[in-house]
Amino acid sequence: MPWHLAQINVARFIAPQDDPANADFMAALDHVNAMADAAPGFVWRLVGAGGDATDLVPDAADPNLIANMSVWTDVAALRAFVYEQPDHLAVMRRRRDWFDKMDVFMALWWVPVGHIPTLAEGMGKIAHLAEHGPTAEAFTFQTLVAAPQP
Questions:
Q1: Is the pLDDT of residue 51 over 90?
Q2: With a threshold of 0.70, does the pTM exceed it?
Q3: Distance CA 81, CA 24 (A)
Q4: What DSSP assignment string belongs to 11-47?
Q5: Diameter of the chain by CA atoms?
Q6: pLDDT in tens, 119-134
Q7: Taking the domains of the chain in order of start, what are their residue ranges?
């Protein structure tokens, strides 16, 4: 069975999402998402009613938490976008301006080609990684796990 790489990353706004302090982040979203959509190896991303995922609620008990989730053909494609795409890097460099520090904020996992993960599935991967550390179920760029073999 062929596999794709799914990723979720979460962030908790320091101030409420609509606070003017977050204006630069919110203004960059459409452009950075368009860059992701056009990137080599991009397959799919989580989108809510507003064209991004900021209106989706990953945790009803935490109104300042947002999630970004996507699927890529492989690790190299996702890594190239995350760490080499200049506009994405510019936003990442400013993350401390907008978001609290979190111990576990992202997870990677393999999905069968054609599978579209749900937000609940992604949040479960974050929880699994927080509880168990990196495993084949959920891992990070620093602890990569190869795709399952037939």
A1: no
A2: yes
A3: 20
A4: EEBSS-TTSGGGHHHHHHHHHHHHHHHHSTTEEEE--
A5: 50
A6: 999 999 999 999 999 9
A7: 3-143
